[in-house]
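Lab notebook, bench 4. We co-purified these components, and the gel suggests they stay together. Before we commit to crystallization screens, I want a quick structural picture of the whole thing.
Request: model the full complex, all chains together.
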Amino acid sequence: MIVILKSNPNPDQLQGLRNWILSKGVQIHESTGESHTILGLVGDTSKIDTDLISALDIVENVKRVQEPYKNANRKFHPEDTVIKVGNTQIGGGSLTIMAGPCSVESEEQIIEVAKAVKASGATMLRGGAFKPRTSPYSFQGLGEEGLRLLLLAKKETGLPVVTELMDASQLPLFEDVDVIQIGARNMQNFNLLKIVGAQDKPVMIKRGAANTYEELLMSAEYVMAQGNEKVILCERGIRTFETYTRNTLDIAAVPSLRTLTHLPIIIDPSHATGKAALVSTLAMSAVAAGADGLLIEVHNDPTKALCDGPQSIKPDAFDVLAKKMKALHGFMQDLEG
Amino acid sequence: MIVILKSNPNPDQLQGLRNWILSKGVQIHESTGESHTILGLVGDTSKIDTDLISALDIVENVKRVQEPYKNANRKFHPEDTVIKVGNTQIGGGSLTIMAGPCSVESEEQIIEVAKAVKASGATMLRGGAFKPRTSPYSFQGLGEEGLRLLLLAKKETGLPVVTELMDASQLPLFEDVDVIQIGARNMQNFNLLKIVGAQDKPVMIKRGAANTYEELLMSAEYVMAQGNEKVILCERGIRTFETYTRNTLDIAAVPSLRTLTHLPIIIDPSHATGKAALVSTLAMSAVAAGADGLLIEVHNDPTKALCDGPQSIKPDAFDVLAKKMKALHGFMQDLEG
Amino acid sequence: MIVILKSNPNPDQLQGLRNWILSKGVQIHESTGESHTILGLVGDTSKIDTDLISALDIVENVKRVQEPYKNANRKFHPEDTVIKVGNTQIGGGSLTIMAGPCSVESEEQIIEVAKAVKASGATMLRGGAFKPRTSPYSFQGLGEEGLRLLLLAKKETGLPVVTELMDASQLPLFEDVDVIQIGARNMQNFNLLKIVGAQDKPVMIKRGAANTYEELLMSAEYVMAQGNEKVILCERGIRTFETYTRNTLDIAAVPSLRTLTHLPIIIDPSHATGKAALVSTLAMSAVAAGADGLLIEVHNDPTKALCDGPQSIKPDAFDVLAKKMKALHGFMQDLEG
Amino acid sequence: MIVILKSNPNPDQLQGLRNWILSKGVQIHESTGESHTILGLVGDTSKIDTDLISALDIVENVKRVQEPYKNANRKFHPEDTVIKVGNTQIGGGSLTIMAGPCSVESEEQIIEVAKAVKASGATMLRGGAFKPRTSPYSFQGLGEEGLRLLLLAKKETGLPVVTELMDASQLPLFEDVDVIQIGARNMQNFNLLKIVGAQDKPVMIKRGAANTYEELLMSAEYVMAQGNEKVILCERGIRTFETYTRNTLDIAAVPSLRTLTHLPIIIDPSHATGKAALVSTLAMSAVAAGADGLLIEVHNDPTKALCDGPQSIKPDAFDVLAKKMKALHGFMQDLEG
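Here is the predicted assembly.
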């Protein structure tokens, strides 16, 4: 951490700052130039609150050199994290394919889609029971009943399931859920992060539409700091000025997060674009970028979808895509091999 | 609502769509041109899910004409909403000044600040007990004890208090709180919105850093749809590419929201900029824009602030500002006549 | 085009509007509902100025149904445009690899890089002679001398060259340049677009950092409206709130623009990220997304680069990447075939 | 400037870097910690290219402490710049009101508007002759004839005029223009900036829709580095995700730029919002924020405006606004006294 002081800092305040920093077990290297004095803080600065230092009258600017996250940081955990889920694993060179409808709508629908996506090669079943919707008048998901149907589909097909937890009160219903999803709108719902951090169950955190990689990793850190290291990251598009697509898929998140963290990285091309016609192309692009997996909306009859319809592909299109993704994944592994 | 069909739509699907729309109690006006057929939906379309229509194969595009919110919509409630809080009111031509520290830190601190801001003319006391922090290693607020101290300061000064509710589990502690604040990161925590919608207490919703006016109003609609009409909106800066300020204060939110809704509008220049030096200028600008009030961070010793220090002004600066804001508010009222 | 009128429009103004629209050779379909009257404009509306209609007192909103571009629109030109450049072609299933240094620095440098990238499989040589730099104190390119050296490298290697034109006054020097590049900062320099539209030479337009697909296509339209149909589009990252990368590569631009237009699409992963370590991964991702080509910065000694150094890869890394891109391109063609 | 080295930097490369820095006349303060070595560069670093240093293999990160602009920097020129234009001045406590139509359309129109805005208190006349339009099919301005009419209106009213220069070739026509406007889309047209920098005439630079304060100041620096110190800055809204307004007016630009630079700051609420109904409120807000002036679109018959109609107010609304702005400006001066 580097602290840049204003010109002619008050000597007492400067001494106070020096003492406070030293009390945190951090060393100080001081450089005095013509116009500025710079303090270089050396040691473990991850728990020093930069805002606190910035607030001082004598300080012009504070810049971090080290990342503010530790558990999620690849520097301290060079090996990729691999997470076992049922008979499958996430990370470690495998290609996870999470597929299913945006919302669970009926027993018939979820069972049919689950069987179809399993036959096509999906490794996990996704489906929403509790749905965050912008409007209070939109369909909010089947709730507890939706979860029951999703778990029925798990039983029928053997596919592990991933579904969104919107509120701590829903947690008792999640016992047989394999991966808890934290939605983009809850990425900084810190109480919820702490609660899932106290579970012994994988957690997939979706990046907020206006959150940086660092903030996403800090949210992972919230979960990990509670003892739950089974965290999966999911990029699902960020909000920009472009309106043709619902969001802008930030494909650079794959190699960037790969550098910064050891956690697995999933790409959601369905929410990222909001257009079914773009999903397959972006899914292939994500596989080539080295993503650990994809989260893809599949619906047996998109014209009946109760939410997020425009971004769902049909089972036959998914079947083609799944085969192509696997072929590409194999090709990439040979190429990089 | 306008539905633009693709060229040569399948006639059966089109008839199905017509029937479905009519079943919602909405009329259809159809225009057929050379390349496109357009359906004009006339009636109360606020409960029609545009995503559902967009998902149809025969549809190219759906555009809303009416706003998707009703309770918050000025068209249906032309009169400004005025909310009574203690001896003061929010909206209706008065200037609400909410002031206090980012975090409650100690009894001495909060009492001292509360007395100071009251003497300067603040009409409400703000102070954080539960603090949303990006890092799990940063100070998270004093919690229950912080709330106790805040209410002590209310008792000492008579100032009504506003403070953030981060989770439904904290609600029992909020009995004597006057206004519940929903933070920007929880603006789309829909479960929390429903819960505060079921209370008989004013709720101030802060606009999310990447949320539109319409989304903010839909969040207000969540609260109002539960029966709680005492909603206050707060603009606190949006996330843009500019990094000199923490966020970009969207001052056009004042006249824009004024047009769209009857709810009171508060501006938070402290969070919007993250720089104490800019707070006074932006506060004056907000008064001139016709905001119903300001939310201003004031700290008795910014060098000791445990969070968000760089954006707090000191009581003496606040005293000058409060007087100037009141003078300007009076001047503007005379000018507008 | 759809014109939504305000409630109870003035009948004379409405009649005036109807007459004006009809005078443009466009038909009107009118739908009158309870709260709004909607005019559906049918015919060629591409030359109707929506701003002009929006300005009318009786109009609430105007929405386009048709795209405002014609020459660049795939609807009117379903076949992909293929552009011949020297012995190579851009578009039509081939993979164009434009490689070279950000700036031409010396004869030795440009000849060495040109030979290296040709040996690795590049199909075109890129190199900047006139450089747009944010600071007047940064190196601005070798200018005329740089162009001379670039053309020398073309002669030595036979590679066609692409280089940026910043100002019409430089045009006489571009006679032997194969593709004129219009930089992102000049994407809406409409005078420059008209001037290159009057040339008989391919033009590659880079998307501005804050411009939409539609605006990019309107800039292409400026060139094409002058008679020059040889336009190439280049996505080079957009400006967002994320600061880890210099810009955010919008990979969805490939399938989105593919749908909207028949023009070839090039991806520039070097400028998009500003980090050499991310270039290869994103280039592979772009090939999988179906881009017609890549623009890649290659420098023989990045430590000496006079500009944009951090995003250049070295010839040996480019050699590995070029081979992998070709292999992937072939694989994708077989897969899609 | 601070250079953060990677762990275990190559000693030869490090020595090379040290020598290169010293050769620029800059001193080095070196701090070696456990994981990082930090070089503090002390002296005039404004002409050191940070990209060049970032490109080195041994460097992890480079951060500027000093601003990269000098002529525009308040630190080196503490006094506000005041620019004389005709009988009026820009900056120095006066309130400049530039008003007029988006486009000059006819002699009658521009003379009528000019007389009206003068009578209401405008200090300068604005009007576009050369218009940057997104579509090649939209009205592009009357060009040379428009300029002639604008200068006729200047003669009639005595109001100094400000109008946009889109291309160097138009410069000979600008002899009698009082202030040359560089449009937002040309903010980084560096050749054009150099050309106006070589004139002895005030230049108003509009901030690009996606440009930072620093980039705006670097564009001012381009002009000033050529010897022309009469630069005026104009904030006209930035591009964000919000679509209700055309752009988002960044009101914090006023106090922020006031801190960073000594140049006058003008606010353009018309382009910032694209909605006439919001212009007056935002203009008042800008006066309260301390802007040196406003740029306001006024049209005698908005229903006939050939471009940008929705954001123009009529002369009678401008008359009310101008009086209110002056009253507010006087009030603020007394208050700040």
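The longest helix of chain D spans residues 315-336. Worth comparing against the SEC data before the next meeting. The mean pLDDT of chain D is 92.
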